[in-house]
Write a structure and sequence with these properties.
By secondary structure, the protein is of the alpha/beta class. Helices cover 47% and strands 17% of the residues. The chain has nine helices and eight strands. A five-stranded parallel sheet has the order 2-3-1-4-8, sandwiched between helices. Helix 1 packs across helix 9, helix 4 packs parallel to helix 5 and helix 6 crosses helix 7. The longest helix is centred in the last third of the chain and has 15 residues. Bound molecules: adenosine-5'-diphosphate (2 copies) and zinc ion. One adenosine-5'-diphosphate binds next to helix 2 and helix 3.
Length: 210
C-alpha cells in the first residue's frame, strides 16, 4: 500500500485540498487533528490527555499520535493506503510511519506566516459534513447553508484564535518543518505554492501526484 502525506503549517489548506482530491486519489483522508477532536468530544483517555496540548497550541506527544495511527491503518478502507492530513509532524512520527506504510508523495503546501493568522481566524466548518469554509476567502455560496449538504449548522474550533495560532506556528517551525529535509532526501517531496486560489492549488497537487 502507498500513502500520501499532506504537509504544511496550520491553516495552509491541507484539509480543504484533501476534500477536493479524495475522489481522484481514491484514498481516505486521515486527519490526526480530526481524530483528536473526536477523542476529546467522546471524553476518551486519549482525548483527555490530548486536550491540554491542543488548547495550548502544542503538539500532542508522539506516542499518543503513533498509537492512533497504528489503529486507524488497520481499518478496511486503509488497505490501499491513505491520505494523511497533519501527520507526521515530527521526525519520530515520520520514522514510525515509515515502518507501517510506504509514502509515495509528500505534498507540501507552502503559505507565509503572515497569511496563516487571517486564514485560521476566519475558518469555519459544516457541523454535518465537515466541509471547510472561510469568512472572506471561501464563504458558502448561499449565506448560512453548506454548499455540500445544505446544513445550517456550522462550527468554529476553540484553538482557532489569534493567541493559539502563534504557538501552533512556532510548534510548526521548531518541530515539523525539519521534516521537509527528511523527505527531500528521500526524493518524494513536492512543494506547492499555497498562497493562491484554491482551484489552482488543486490542479498543481493533482499533477504532482501523476
Ligand atoms: P489546514 O487543514 O491546513 O489547517 P484548512 O484547509 O482548514 O487548513 O484551511 C484553513 C482556512 O483557510 C479555511 O478557512 C479555508 O477555507 C481557508 N483556505 C484554504 N485554502 C485557501 C486558499 N488557497 N486561499 C484562501 N483561503 C484558503
Ligand atoms: P491545523 O492543521 O489547523 O494545525 P490540526 O487539526 O491538524 O490543525 O491539529 C490541531 C491540533 O491537534 C494541533 O495543534 C496539535 O495539538 C494536535 N495534533 C494534530 N495532529 C498532530 C500530530 N500529528 N502530532 C501532534 N499533535 C497533533
Ligand atoms: Zn455540509
Amino acid at each position: 500500500m502507498e500513502s500520501i502525506v499532506l504537509f504544511g503549517p496550520p491553516g495552509a489548506g491541507k484539509g480543504t485540498q484533501a476534500q477536493r482530491i479524495m475522489d481522484s486519489t481514491g484514498l481516505p483522508q486521515v486527519s490526526t487533528g480530526d481524530m483528536l477532536r473526536a477523542a476529546v468530544a467522546a471524553g476518551t483517555t486519549t482525548g483527555i490527555e490530548a486536550k491540554k496540548f491542543m488548547d495550548a497550541g502544542k503538539l500532542v506527544p508522539d506516542e499518543v499520535i503513533i498509537a492512533l495511527i497504528c489503529d486507524r491503518i488497520q481499518d478496511p478502507d486503509a488497505t490501499n493506503g491513505v491520505m494523511f492530513d497533519g501527520f507526521p509532524r515530527t521526525i519520530p512520527q515520520a520514522e514510525a510511519l515509515s515502518k507501517i506504510t510506504e509514502v509515495s508523495h509528500v505534498i507540501a503546501i507552502d503559505v507565509p506566516d503572515e497569511r496563516i493568522v487571517e486564514r485560521i481566524c476566519g475558518r469555519y466548518t459544516c457541523g454535518n459534513c465537515s466541509s471547510v469554509y472561510h469568512d472572506t476567502f471561501n464563504p458558502t455560496t448561499k449565506d448560512g447553508f453548506c454548499d455540500n449538504c445544505d446544513s445550517t449548522e456550522f462550527k468554529r474550533r476553540a484553538d482557532d484564535n489569534a493567541d493559539t495560532v502563534l504557538s501552533r506556528l512556532s510548534a510548526y517551525h521548531e518541530q515539523t518543518s525539519p521534516l521537509a529535509k527528511w523527505y527531500i532526501e528521500r526524493g518524494i517531496f513536492h512543494q506547492i505554492d499555497g498562497d493562491r486560489a484554491i482551484d489552482e492549488i488543486t490542479t498543481d497537487i493533482l499533477s504532482a501526484l501523476k
